[in-house]
Amino acid sequence: MPAALPYIAMAVAAAGSMAAADSSRSAQNRAGDIAKANAKQAADQADQQMNASRNNSPDIGAMLSSNEQQAKGGVSGTMLTGSGGVDPGSLQLGKTTLLGG
What we know:
Layout: H1 5-53, H2 60-71
C-alpha cells in the first residue's frame, strides 16, 4: 500500500487542480457576462441621449421654399403636364364621337 500513496496524492492534487480551474472558468464567464451587460447598458444610454439631442421640429423654411417653387409652375402646372395641361387630341383613342361610337 505504501507504493500507492504517491498515486493517490497525485490524483487528489489533480482533482483539486481541476476544481480550481473550473471555479476560475466560471468566474471568468460571470465577469464576461457582467461586461456584456454593462456595454449594452452604455450603448442604450448613448442611443437615448442621441435621440434626445435631435431636433424634432419641422423645417418650416424648407417647406415654404418647396411650396414657392411648386407655385412657379402655374395654376395647372404639375410635374406630368406642365403649365399648358394635356392636349385634348392625345386623349382620343381613334373615336370621333364623345360616346366612342
